[in-house]
Design brief:
- By secondary structure, this protein is of the alpha+beta class.
- The protein has two domains: 18-88, Gyrase A, domain 2 (2-Layer Sandwich), CATH 3.30.1360; 157-385, no CATH class.
- The chain has helices at 18-29, 55-68, 97-119, 143-174, 212-240, 260-269, 282-297, 305-314, 318-330, 335-345, 361-377, and strands at 34-40, 43-48, 71-78, 81-88, 183-186, 198-202, 242-245, 254-256, 276-279, 383-385.
- It has a four-stranded antiparallel β-sheet, covered by helices on one side. A two-stranded antiparallel sheet has the order 5-6.
- A hairpin with a 2-residue loop joins strand 1 and strand 2.
């Protein structure tokens, strides 16, 4: 996930000096002939005559050169004219590397403890409000259960999340974007009946997206990479899970919803007789979470990965796809997340710096792959308690 939840206070942008204005006029003139320019405090705008055949290459050359001098250009078309706006990069304070490492270690610990909890079938049997059951929690720290938690749950789940985020990271680096390493979000296993040990991870991009191609590539890289890992994890988990009679499922047990893909994989790799249900082991549960997180990230809202992808393909019409997703979530088991989208994440995605070049056929085909993965992995009712 690429920084969907963090909303920072707008930093102060320094003014452009007269010497810098001359530098900008020279660099812009090398690629885009301009017939007028205007300057006000922190922004200078050039009125350009741009040949569409060199628009993409010319803008990228200007962006890279001006970035070296601490400037950000963004191209807009207003009233039939191309306007190139240039402003100074705002000052940004990067978090030290130890924050990433500390969060990673903490998340490994919380997912291992969650896996230990799953391995001893405590996830649905322990009532945390009953003081008489609290001593059983000490079983979490027995070496055998911790090893099972690490190998059978933490490792497969963290692999999916890590590969997902590194997909974003390496594609960002390929496009010369300054970005952070992943920030993992740990959750202690304290939720009665349902624990996953983490809220996933995100990376923070320090550079704005330069164009639609970069926006699309960064957006799709994470979900596609994580999805590729989640499939074999899910298959292995299903094969090694055991069927149980439905009659043994009791009051208070947690039932996991199924996506189209999970149902298909279950039918192929773990067929069960009528009257039975599949008791997912920790590996299968990790795969289920991985597919669930993939679908969440592909929702076409705000700066979620799906927001990146849909904005690159649909342009300003992306906001309509976001509202369709919100409408669907309200009428399924996702009303809380729908509220998050409307009031925290947002439905609209900001445009890239250059919003006037089109995607190639390969990316347009990958868009349909992303939509298919979203549909296949979406779970209308993720969990419910009997």
């Amino acid at each position: 996930m690429v920084n969907p939840f963090i909303r920072k206070q707008r930093p102060k942008i320094p003014q452009i000096t007269s010497e810098e204005i001359e530098l900008l006029k020279t660099e812009v003139g090398k690629h885009f002939p301009f017939y007028d320019f205007r300057y006000q405090d922190t922004t200078i705008v050039f009125f350009c005559s741009i040949d569409p055949s060199i628009l993409e290459s010319g803008f990228e050359s200007i962006r890279k050169k001006l970035s070296e001098h601490g400037f950000i250009p963004f191209l807009r078309k207003e009233h039939g004219e191309f306007l190139l706006y240039i402003t100074k990069k705002p000052e940004q304070k990067e978090k030290p590397l130890w924050v990433n490492i500390a969060l990673l270690i903490t998340t490994i610990v919380t997912t291992i403890l969650t896996g230990s909890l799953l391995s001893i079938n405590m996830a649905t049997s322990v009532n945390y409000l009953n003081i008489q059951e609290l001593p059983d929690i000490l079983l979490l720290f027995e070496p055998a259960h911790l090893i099972n938690g690490a190998v059978l749950f933490s490792f497969p789940l963290m692999s999916i999340l890590f590969i997902h985020e590194m997909g974003h990271y390496f594609i960002s680096k390929k496009h010369h974007l300054k970005t952070s390493l992943p920030f993992f979000i740990p959750i202690p296993p304290v939720l009665p009946g349902f624990n996953i040990g983490t809220f996933g991870a995100l990376i923070s991009s320090h550079d704005p997206m330069p164009d639609k191609k970069t926006l699309f590539d960064v957006g799709i890289a994470g979900p596609l990479a994580g999805f590729i890992v989640a499939i074999p994890v899910t298959i292995i988990g299903l094969i090694t899970s055991n069927p149980i009679p439905i009659s043994t499922i009791g009051q208070g047990d947690t039932i996991l919803g199924s996506s189209l893909l999970f149902a298909l994989l279950s039918t192929v790799f773990a067929p069960i007789q009528q009257g039975f249900a599949l008791d997912l082991n920790p590996i299968a549960f990790a795969g289920w979470i991985g597919l669930l997180i993939t679908s969440i990230n592909l929702l076409p809202a705000g700066q979620l990965d799906g927001g990146h992808i849909f904005r690159a393909v649909l342009g300003e019409k992306q906001k309509y796809a976001a509202w369709v997703a919100v409408f669907i979530m309200i009428f399924t088991g996702w009303i809380f997340f729908a509220i998050l989208v409307m009031f925290l994440i947002g439905t609209m995605h900001p445009p890239p710096l250059n919003d006037h070049t089109e995607l190639d056929l390969k990316r347009k085909l990958l868009f349909f792959v992303a939509v298919a993965i979203l549909i296949l992995c979406f779970i209308p009712d993720p969990i419910y308690i009997l």
